[in-house]
Amino acid sequence: MNGVATYTRFELKRTFRNRRSFIFSLIFPVIMYFLIAAPNRHNKAFGESNGQLFPISAPQYYMVGLLSFGVMVAGLSTGARIAAERQVGWVRQLRLTPLSPRAYFRAKVATGYLMICIATALLYVSGTILGVRLPATEWVHMTYLVLIAAIPFAALGIGLGHLLTVDSMGPALGGGASLFAFLGGTWFPLTGHGAFIEFCQLLPSYWLVQAGHVGLGVHGDPWGAKGWIVVAAWSAAMIGLARLLYQRDTKRV
User: Are strands 46-49 and 52-56 parallel, antiparallel or unpaired?
Assistant: First the structure.
């Protein structure tokens, strides 16, 4: 047990020392937020969710929107670190130690969620700097749902790290996060009906965005049974995929 705790602490330290990953995963969404929201901080013509209009300011609206993007990037960025470790042979060295696969995954999940929590906190702080004010219950409810919706992305990041090389992880990380954000409604509200909307509602990014909409004044459960089922199914599938790709990677010479 002490070995597991030691390795987890080591992983956390290495995460903060990786400046490129730290800046891209955490600082980039914050920079985007200030560039978009700050010039429109007094504009209150935002705030549409599920066909309902809310008198929401631009800083609050974009904080919620970029929250989902920041969480996805932070979760997937774990894969970039794993790919770099595989390239230098660090993962292979770990297999020669008594560290179990379960302990390895626990450490990776812990570091991934640390990045997610920091990304969330930075956007919350940025929002408050620009005047966002929410009741404490809404902050807690939004954070709770966002952390649950982040599970598929944290697992997918681990899986991709054991599948792709360092050179291919960059495009996969940027392209994957952008595609999920686009289809989830991060940049614009997805309204109406039809096959496209039905398809988007089958993606975890859609419900991650909906979780953030608690911060737009959406009361009650923004997910409903369908949201919980989709998030649970994607979580189970991505965890299984990450485990499968890890096992396949360990069999390579």
Answer: antiparallel
- Find all residues with CB under 8 Å of 79, minimum gap 6, and list them: 156, 157, 158, 159, 160, 161, 164, 169, 172, 173
Angle (nearest 5°) at CA 105 between 102 and 106: 85
Mean pLDDT to the nearest integer, 162-183: 88
Structure letter (DSSP) for residue 28? H
CA–CA separation, 180 vs 80, rounded Å? 18
CA distance 247 to 130: 46
**Alpha carbon distance 62, 186 (integer Å):** 9
pTM to 2 decimal places: 0.85
pLDDT (tens digit per residue) in 15-28? 777 666 667 777 88
Give, as one character, the DSSP assignment of residue 227: H
What is the DSSP code string of 69-124?
HHHHHHHHHHHHHHHHHHHTTHHHHHTTSS--HHHHHHHHHHHHHHHHHHHHHHHH
Compute the distance between CA of residue 182 and CA of residue 68 in angstroms, rounded to an integer: 11
CA dist 182 and 180 (Å) reads: 5
Rounded to a whole number of angstroms, the CA Rg of the chain reads 19
Contact 132, 60 (CB under 8 A): yes
Burial of 192 (0-12, 13-18, 19+ CB in 10 A): exposed
List, for residues 68-118, the tens digit of each pLDDT value. Answer: 998 998 888 888 888 887 887 777 777 667 667 777 788 888 888 888 998
